[in-house]
Amino acid sequence: MQPFETHTGIVIPFNRSNIDTDAILPKQYLKMLEKTGYGPHLFDDERYLDPGDVDTPVADRRLNPECILNQTPYSQGSILLAQANFGCGSSREHAVWALRDFGIRALLAPSFGDIFFNNCFNNGLLPVILDQELIDELFERCGVEPGFELTVDLQNCEIQGGGSTWPFVVEEGRRQNLLQGFDEIGLTLERSDAIRHYEAGRKIQEPWLFR
Amino acid sequence: MAAQTLYDKLWSRHLVDELPDGSSLVYIDRHLLHEVTSPQAFSGLRSLGRKPWRLDANIAVPDHAVPTRNRELGVPGIADLIARKQVETLTANCHESGIELIELEDSRQGIVHVVGPEQGLTLPGMTIVCGDSHTSTHGAFATLAMGIGTSEVEHVLATQTLRTRKQKNLRVRFEGELGYGVTAKDLILALIGRIGTAGGTGYAIEYAGSAIEQLSMEGRMTICNMSIEAGARAGMVAYDEKTRAFVKGRPRAPEGAMLEQAHNYWQTLVSDADAVFDREEDFNVSELGPQVSWGTSPEMVTGIGGTVPDIDRVKDESARRNLQRACDYMGLKSGQRLEGLAIDKVFIGSCTNARIEDLREVAHLIKGHKVHSAVKQALIVPGSGLVGLQAEREGLAEVFARAGFEWRSAGCSMCLGMNDDRLSAGERCASTSNRNFEGRQGKGGRTHLMSPLMAAAAAITGELTDVRKF
Ligand code: SF4
């Protein structure tokens, strides 16, 4: 997994709550078999004026000028600022792959959908939970200063920008995993003996599960 | 030992290890796979030379992207070449790894969350995961069932465990008698309307109370299914005689002496009487009427006699903006009545409401009626091939066809429109599925969530209708 230490970038203000993973990456792109290639389809329904599918050449599609991802400097943005419950709905990890592919490295919101939140950590994308007041303040800053930049520092658990510094909290285990870019499967497999031991006990307790 | 909730019991029974990073290693008894969220997991395993830990815990079935017509042609009959490739990839991955696959031509094929319980692959006391958020459905059988992402699918395949964190306990009690025309779907929609789509985030929900005890297993599955729409990864119902009766005789269920042994254990799968929940929500269902969603989030829901909220009266600016956006998308006005709103399409299906009981209710209601002439399409898609066969045997399919419904083969279909069953821009749909997000059933499509009874009534009248007056 790609590690995350510190990242500086342009903030994309997406001032909506309950943004679901269907909006982040519409269903037609779930037919793809890889983990990459989703960037051009991030927020596809909003991003283009005409509908598209996996085999529609992106170059032939008309960009929606109203969509913030199509506007300078946000098309170069890498930190997404949103309202509550970002990433709710479907478990599709494709939504995270699309954000990552577009170049997003960190997400700032008051809360996140549960499965989505996990998926982010598994892909080197940092979702940061911030107080509603701070989120609102950041939206204000973005409003007065288009192209407003922030630094998200996971080493020190701080966000810096516009002369201010704000602390944030992330579970220590998740922080370490992101900083190191661990292969979690490899880590779990180091505990194979414990799993086998557990399994042997269950076979005796609930033999009907092992058939 | 301290009193435990059902969730606590399931959790501690499956706990393999506590990990240094603060998460827990939880053993997974059943892993369900489908074509959309598994290919990258199989590639991940392959690239590192890893193998599945335990083959017999896994089972795969294609459901999301499969067409609901021309199924006798099998995989070669999938017209969408990219979708076909995805189903072929699932087949190849299963063959290569040795994981059991229910193929497209098999009568047992269907939506993974309908197939699991039907085949007895879902058994009380299990931990069940699938790369799909509606895995919560299986919680109706006193299981801990959760949706996971593709990285986690790979992790479960390789290790038979999940790294996860314990949730808090939320009990939702539905007490009272359901009125005529009010179903499990109305209970869960009303709950989401009350607590919001983030209301259950961080919790495992246990549904309890006299109304839940009265419900069939099908109804309980409908409720557990939409736990994720309330923000919770898992929802569950305690084991009882109904669970026992449903499981008995299923192909993969234990039999004879082993069933008795299992039953003895399963009976413990209830919350202790003095267990303490972190939070409780209580509902009196006797007053509840049929529900219908008006907006673009399942929490934007009201009784069928209700209206779109009066947006001007909402104080919070960002809430107002959200409501206005939903109204604009749905083509509705602030304060507008929902009853009588003309619809273009009807979809009866999905893992929420496509089991035999749902189809029986629909057939009973529409018998002798015709789909309204203004309705462009009314689809009925059974949750599995076996549900479909059963409906045909019982004569339900004939009732549907005679009324002017299209009777299709099993799959997710217009619930998410990955195949060619979808809405066009601006079309308004009465749907028994679970999500009314923008574009969910097709770009620009407008979804109103409701029960099968309500969707059936809408099909006949051509508008959103109170089924109690039908
Ligand atoms: S029926 Fe709909 S919600 Fe259920 S698994 Fe299929 S796509 Fe997901």
Automatic annotation (TrEMBL), chain A:
<comment type="subunit">
    <text>Heterodimer of LeuC and LeuD.</text>
</comment>
<comment type="function">
    <text>Catalyzes the isomerization between 2-isopropylmalate and 3-isopropylmalate, via the formation of 2-isopropylmaleate.</text>
</comment>
<dbReference type="Pfam" id="PF00694">
    <property type="entry name" value="Aconitase_C"/>
</dbReference>
<dbReference type="InterPro" id="IPR000573">
    <property type="entry name" value="AconitaseA/IPMdHydase_ssu_swvl"/>
</dbReference>
<keyword id="KW-0028">Amino-acid biosynthesis</keyword>
<dbReference type="GO" id="GO:0009098">
    <property type="term" value="P:L-leucine biosynthetic process"/>
</dbReference>
<feature type="domain" description="Aconitase A/isopropylmalate dehydratase small subunit swivel">
    <location>
        <begin position="1"/>
        <end position="132"/>
    </location>
</feature>
<comment type="pathway">
    <text>Amino-acid biosynthesis; L-leucine biosynthesis; L-leucine from 3-methyl-2-oxobutanoate: step 2/4.</text>
</comment>
<dbReference type="GO" id="GO:0003861">
    <property type="term" value="F:3-isopropylmalate dehydratase activity"/>
</dbReference>
<keyword id="KW-0100">Branched-chain amino acid biosynthesis</keyword>
<comment type="similarity">
    <text>Belongs to the LeuD family. LeuD type 1 subfamily.</text>
</comment>
<protein>
    <recommendedName>
        <fullName>3-isopropylmalate dehydratase small subunit</fullName>
        <ecNumber>4.2.1.33</ecNumber>
    </recommendedName>
</protein>
<dbReference type="InterPro" id="IPR015928">
    <property type="entry name" value="Aconitase/3IPM_dehydase_swvl"/>
</dbReference>
<dbReference type="InterPro" id="IPR033940">
    <property type="entry name" value="IPMI_Swivel"/>
</dbReference>
<dbReference type="InterPro" id="IPR050075">
    <property type="entry name" value="LeuD"/>
</dbReference>
<keyword id="KW-0456">Lyase</keyword>
<keyword id="KW-0432">Leucine biosynthesis</keyword>
<dbReference type="InterPro" id="IPR004431">
    <property type="entry name" value="3-IsopropMal_deHydase_ssu"/>
</dbReference>
<dbReference type="GO" id="GO:0009316">
    <property type="term" value="C:3-isopropylmalate dehydratase complex"/>
</dbReference>
Automatic annotation (TrEMBL), chain B:
<feature type="binding site">
    <location>
        <position position="351"/>
    </location>
    <ligand>
        <name>[4Fe-4S] cluster</name>
    </ligand>
</feature>
<protein>
    <recommendedName>
        <fullName>3-isopropylmalate dehydratase large subunit</fullName>
        <ecNumber>4.2.1.33</ecNumber>
    </recommendedName>
</protein>
<dbReference type="GO" id="GO:0009098">
    <property type="term" value="P:L-leucine biosynthetic process"/>
</dbReference>
<dbReference type="InterPro" id="IPR018136">
    <property type="entry name" value="Aconitase_4Fe-4S_BS"/>
</dbReference>
<keyword id="KW-0004">4Fe-4S</keyword>
<feature type="binding site">
    <location>
        <position position="415"/>
    </location>
    <ligand>
        <name>[4Fe-4S] cluster</name>
    </ligand>
</feature>
<comment type="pathway">
    <text>Amino-acid biosynthesis; L-leucine biosynthesis; L-leucine from 3-methyl-2-oxobutanoate: step 2/4.</text>
</comment>
<feature type="domain" description="Aconitase/3-isopropylmalate dehydratase large subunit alpha/beta/alpha">
    <location>
        <begin position="8"/>
        <end position="462"/>
    </location>
</feature>
<keyword id="KW-0100">Branched-chain amino acid biosynthesis</keyword>
<dbReference type="InterPro" id="IPR004430">
    <property type="entry name" value="3-IsopropMal_deHydase_lsu"/>
</dbReference>
<comment type="similarity">
    <text>Belongs to the aconitase/IPM isomerase family. LeuC type 1 subfamily.</text>
</comment>
<dbReference type="GO" id="GO:0046872">
    <property type="term" value="F:metal ion binding"/>
</dbReference>
<dbReference type="GO" id="GO:0003861">
    <property type="term" value="F:3-isopropylmalate dehydratase activity"/>
</dbReference>
<keyword id="KW-0408">Iron</keyword>
<dbReference type="InterPro" id="IPR036008">
    <property type="entry name" value="Aconitase_4Fe-4S_dom"/>
</dbReference>
<dbReference type="GO" id="GO:0051539">
    <property type="term" value="F:4 iron, 4 sulfur cluster binding"/>
</dbReference>
<keyword id="KW-0456">Lyase</keyword>
<keyword id="KW-0028">Amino-acid biosynthesis</keyword>
<dbReference type="InterPro" id="IPR015931">
    <property type="entry name" value="Acnase/IPM_dHydase_lsu_aba_1/3"/>
</dbReference>
<dbReference type="InterPro" id="IPR033941">
    <property type="entry name" value="IPMI_cat"/>
</dbReference>
<comment type="subunit">
    <text>Heterodimer of LeuC and LeuD.</text>
</comment>
<keyword id="KW-0479">Metal-binding</keyword>
